[in-house]
Amino acid sequence: MQHFDIPSEQIIAWRRHLHQHPELSFKEVQTSQYIVDELTKIGGLDIQRPTPTSVVAVLKGARGEGQCIALRADIDALPVEEQNEVDFRSVNAGVSHVCGHDAHAAILLGTAKVLASLKDRLAGTVKFVFQPAEEVPPGGAVALIEAGVFKDVDACFGLHVVNDKAGLVRIIETEAATTSCDACTIKIQGRGSHGSMPQFAIDPLLTGAEMVLAINTIVSRNVSPDNFAVVSPTVFNCGSVVNVIPHTAELGINTRVKNEQDRELVMKRINEIAESVAKANGATIEINWSKGYGAVIQDLGLVALARETAIETMGEENVASSKGLTASEDFSAYSNVTKCCYFTVGSGNADEGYPFMNHHPKFNIDEKCLTVGTKMEVAIVMKLLGDQ
User: Fold this and answer.
1) Closest to 166 measured CA to CA, from 233, 103, 124
2) b/e code 186-200 from CB counts within 10 Å (16+ = b)
3) Residue 361 has what DSSP assignment?
4) Which of 52, 147, 190, 314 is spaced 20 to 30 Å from 222 by Cα?
5) Rounded to an integer, what distance in angstroms lies between the CA atom of residue 60 and that of residue 318?
6) DSSP character string of 290-302
7) pLDDT tens for the 388 residues of the chain, in order
8) CA 24, CA 273: separation in Å to the nearest integer?
9) Are strands 229-238 and 182-189 parallel, antiparallel or unpaired?
10) Which helix (H) or strand (E) holds 234?
């Protein structure tokens, strides 16, 4: 089992400061400056600001040329009022790190500190990427790619703390580590009427209901049973007066799939169903799509390396497998331009006193996960660039 001196108390202090001072996507001004200040204290790093609220720190190994490895942490918070009763509760009303990004940033700061101290053992380059705006499409990843941060990166690793056994490293064994996430609104234009005279109406409520029922068959009848897909009608706004058949209705649909072929298929089928049902009922529609993040596609060679590293570093009893996450995130942009690997670290489950999922107002973490995440990132870099 590999051993590294991890500054756990310092990492906890970083996490608590970040937790107490969360900032929303693209507004991480104080957060990014705090990260710059702490990286400056570490020393030996080339600190860059490629976009207004991002930070990239570059560490050059003293043993010469080698691969360029990127490690990424997202740093933005959510527009959620925190309900945790802790000393370091968010001081910014309506904003909190119940996403877990405070942990990610603290872990990466810890990794930078440890690896800077091991510089003489490294051959190659490490980029510590503190990325803004994961929570809001188009996300902060694309801007960093456009700024050239990833032009020389050979591999990129990311992690996420999740509601799981504290300290458990879960390796996502599938090529698609996450799903894509898209959404559409369907505005239905009918013709209103008195509730007692439906024969004069083109009823948008019934039209929308038929659409919902038909759209709910897409996964079972159009997507292969071997593939993951979720199509969820989540919004249905129509009418406000009980004796009036309304003029209009609006549907909202959320879709999540794990490959681009199914992604396009699902979008195509929703469009076809909405158009055909509207036509059959004499209504007209307007469909607007908002394409979110694609699926994170992993390099299976890096996945195998991460599993091997986890077992060596944490012990086999602290490593498990996953078939992927049903959530989405903009780490996917990096997987379009370089080899990637994405894994999770358990931050505590219900049995351990942490019953709430990420994004819940009471989401909190067992801080032992900070040391585990740091150990994993350090060990991965040492395996790829170190003098083993």
Assistant:
1) 103
2) bbbebebbeeeeeee
3) T
4) 190
5) 31
6) EE---PPBPPHHH
7) 567 899 999 999 999 999 999 999 999 999 999 999 999 999 999 999 999 999 999 999 999 999 999 999 999 999 999 999 999 999 999 999 999 999 999 999 999 999 999 999 999 999 999 999 999 999 999 999 999 999 999 999 999 999 999 999 999 999 999 999 999 999 999 999 999 999 999 999 999 999 999 999 999 999 999 999 999 999 999 999 999 999 999 999 999 999 999 999 999 999 999 999 999 999 999 999 999 999 999 999 999 999 999 999 999 999 999 999 999 999 999 999 999 999 999 999 999 999 999 999 999 999 999 999 999 999 999 999 998 6
8) 37
9) unpaired
10) strand 229-238
For residue 191, list its beta bridge partners.
202
DSSP string, 65-118: ---EEEEEEE---BS-------TT---STT-B-TTSHHHHHHHHHHHHHHHHHT
Phi, psi of 116 (to 5 degrees): -60, -35
Between CA 332 and CA 300 the distance in angstroms is: 15
Sign (positive or negative) of CA dihedral 57, 61, 67, 69: negative
Q: Give the 3-state secondary structure of residue 225.
A: coil
Domains annotated for the chain, with CATH where assigned, are 8-178+295-385 (3.40.630.10), 182-291 (3.30.70.360)
Task: For 263, list phi and psi in degrees, rounded to 5.
Answer: -60, -50
Question: Rounded to whole angstroms, how far apart are CA atoms 131 and 222?
Answer: 37
Write down how long the chain is: 388
Residue 135, both tokens: 């929570």
φ, ψ (nearest 5 deg) of residue 317: -70, -15
Q: Are 365 and 103 spatial neighbours (Cβ–Cβ below 8 Å)? A: yes
Find where tokens 């101290």 sit: 117
